[in-house]
Amino acid sequence: MPEIAMELDFLQRFIVNTIFIIVLVRGCYFQHSKNRLFAASFMLFGIGVFMVTGLLHSAEISMGFAFGLFAVFSMLRYRTESISIKEMTYLFLVISIALLTAVGPIGLLEISIINVIICIFAYILETGVLLPLTEEQIIRYEKIENIRPESRADLINDLTQRTGLEIKHLNIESVDFLNDTAQIRIFYKSKNSA
Q1: Can you list the pairs that 26-33 forms with residues at least 24 positions away whose Cβ atoms lie under 8 Å?
Q2: Which of 3, 49, 54, 118 could form a disulfide with 98 if both were Cys (CB 3.0 to 4.6 A apart)?
Q3: In what side-by-side order are the strands of the sheet with 167-176?
Q4: For residue range 140-175, what is the model confidence (pLDDT) as tens digits?
Q5: What are the beta bridge partners of residue 139?
Q6: pTM: predicted TM-score of the whole model, two decimal places
Q7: DSSP secondary structure, 143-182, as one string
């Protein structure tokens, strides 16, 4: 009888884990990034982490050990891949949901509430309600006289006219006085923003 209860608990936790991973990845990440490769990887990673951790849970491993194991694994796997901070954050959230759901010492209701909070914050931050949505691009710029601090308004106006982008902020990354060019990182209003 206790074995059936454990199997039922595992199945319920698996369903909760899968639902919230799908909500996080499909509803938050993929809705705004449209990167199918990462989205599919996140879903598979979340299910895999849950399965391994859930099955190892009976082997009396601690939550810290389980999290450390998958953190090391994810770093080893993705260290050669160029992965942005956003993708790394979603990977961390997927691992967190899977570990919490698999071996969390709290009930399913509490786990579900925590997972709802995670998904809501991810969605709010993706929509730009709290932070404005901006994109960035690096540009090589040849009007070297405009990079002086007193010519900042002229620099922004010139770049806005040339690119057609609503530039919010910029950083001068480097200056090449031999070729009279500067490398500038511009931050502009995203086309996805409302």
Answers
A1: 27/119, 27/123, 28/90, 28/119, 28/122, 28/123, 28/126, 29/90, 29/122, 29/126, 31/126, 32/126, 32/127, 32/192, 33/86
A2: 49
A3: 134-141, 181-189, 167-176
A4: 999 988 888 898 889 889 999 998 888 888 889 999
A5: 184
A6: 0.68
A7: -GGGGSGGGHHHHHHHHHHHH---EEEEEEEEEETTTTEE
